[in-house]
Amino acid sequence: MRRLRESWLLRAVALLAGVLATSGRALGATQYVITNDDPGVSFYTIAPDGALTLRQQVPIGGFGNVAGLFGTNRIRALDSGNQQCVYASVASTGEIVGIAVATLTVEGSATGSPTDGGTSNGIGLAINSQYLYASFTDSNTIGTFSVEAGCSLAFLDDVSVGGLAGGIINGMEIHGAMLIATYTDGSIESFDISAGTPVSHGDKQYSTATLSSLDATYPNAIDITSDGRFAIFGDTSTSVVVEVSDISSGTLTPTVVYTTEASINSSNVMLSPDETLLYVINTQGASVSALFFDKTTGTLSEGCKSGPVKGQSVNWSYLAGLGLVSESGTGGGVYVAEYGSTSGVAQVSLTVTGQRCSLQEVTGSPFVDPNTLGLLSIGTFPPRSF
Q1: Largest alpha-carbon pair distance within the chain?
Q2: In this structure, are residues 133 and 181 in contact, taking their beta carbons and an 8 Å threshold?
Q3: Which of 31, 100, 167, 347 is buried most deeply by CB count within 10 Å?
Q4: Is 278 helix (H, G, I), strand (E, B) or coil?
Q5: In the 8-state DSSP scheme, what is residue 16?
Q6: Which helix (H) or strand (E) holds 211?
Q7: Three-state DSSP class for 218?
Q8: CA dist., res. 308 & res. 348, Å (int)
Q9: Rounded CA separation 149/142 (Å)
Q10: Does residue 308 have a cis peptide bond before it, meaning omega lies within 30 degrees of 0?
Q11: What Cα–Cα distance (Å) separates residue 93 from each residue in 38, 59, 151, 373?
Q12: Which uninterrupted H or E stretch holds 17?
């Protein structure tokens, strides 16, 4: 197990000008931070300084869900050709709803088979321009839907899945013809989706960290490099644990583990647009970390960590899903979902100088989401390009 040094660089306050210089945000373009409030999807407009203003909540039915797994991303954005859509899952009804970004109206919805369900722990989503995949956590199935014109969906079929010890499907991510999934027992698995329906590559395995920790840590969320060479797993753990698998052969290989005691938990991760940084949400540590990433070798090295995000225990219990402040460069920082009785979206800005970085929650953060009792999944439109 490769170990990062526990000493972190001193944090500096990020200047607003620095955030704007790295953001590359096009003024006047339609850009949103989106939240799956379950029920409902909220669209927040983004000011030049990154501040959020609620524009509209789009009702999507259901009666709400305030629990679930960190890795099950319940909202996805699609920006492909003439399809500018946001898709959200509704745990209580099993529906996947498509919303047109241009009009902020529901244009279609679909359900899986009668036995597909995710009421207890939510329904995760992964998407490309042709297919949307839904992880139904109660039935332990992956549903395949074709992406139709006008942000609608058509259900095709589902497949039963599960971890080596019967674990529940958790995170999903796709790249090209590969879908990768995590399970709550520490298993990971990849699938061939070249024909649409997922077909296992037969590479289901426990992660290295799960084995070495005797089940004290397990992979949760997933990201994949733009060239499809590396899969990165953020683990649920009592420390920060990130695992990297070389998937250049077309299947998963044993993960290489990186860990630090600098914070608690690392259940949500996302690469920066230029793939020089990996953002890590310390879901129980009340902070955001950034690790430097070498996309050629797949190695990680120490970066920086924010101070405590405001409001833990008072307004919220866990940090959860994330979205990038910018679609270019290092990403300019992240928006982070706050799960709790007073849910909101925190904004943490990033400054990078050479091989030094700093993360700082901005003035005015968090931005309250009044439409949910427990926010777990957020996204941005347009989404990152890979």
Answers
A1: 54
A2: no
A3: 347
A4: strand
A5: H
A6: helix 208-212
A7: strand
A8: 11
A9: 22
A10: no
A11: 10, 14, 19, 18
A12: helix 16-23
Q: How many CB atoms lie within 10 A of CB 160?
A: 10
- C-alpha 237/C-alpha 59 separation (Å) is 35
**89/68 Cα distance (integer angstroms):** 12
What is the spatial distance between Cα 165 and Cα 14, in angstroms, rounded to a whole number? 45
Q: Locate 334 and state its tokens.
A: 């992240």
Helix (H) or strand (E) holding 189: strand 187-192
| pLDDT tens over the chain, length 386 residues | 444 433 333 233 232 333 333 333 444 458 999 999 988 999 999 999 999 999 999 999 888 776 789 999 999 999 999 999 999 999 999 999 999 999 999 999 999 999 999 999 999 999 999 999 999 999 999 999 999 999 999 999 999 999 999 999 999 999 999 999 999 999 999 999 999 999 999 999 999 999 999 999 999 999 999 999 999 999 999 999 999 999 999 999 999 999 999 899 999 999 999 999 999 999 989 999 999 999 999 999 999 999 999 999 899 999 999 999 999 999 999 999 999 988 999 999 999 999 899 999 999 999 999 999 899 999 999 999 99
E strands in 70-164: 75-80, 83-90, 95-100, 105-111, 123-127, 131-136, 141-147, 153-160
Token duo for residue 110: 């679909």
What's the angle, vertex CA 242, arms to CA 239 and CA 244, rounded to 5?
160
Structure tokens at 112: 């899986």
Distance in angstroms (rounded) separating the CA atoms of residues 101 and 58: 11
The bridge status of strand 256-260 relative to strand 2-3 is: parallel
Q: pTM for the full model?
A: 0.92
At 92, which amino acid appears?
S
| Alpha-carbon distances, residue 231 vs 181, 240, 289 (angstroms) | 11, 17, 19
Cβ distance 256 to 244 under 8 Å? yes
Query: What distance in Å separates the CA atoms of residue 305 and residue 117, rounded to the nearest whole number?
Result: 37
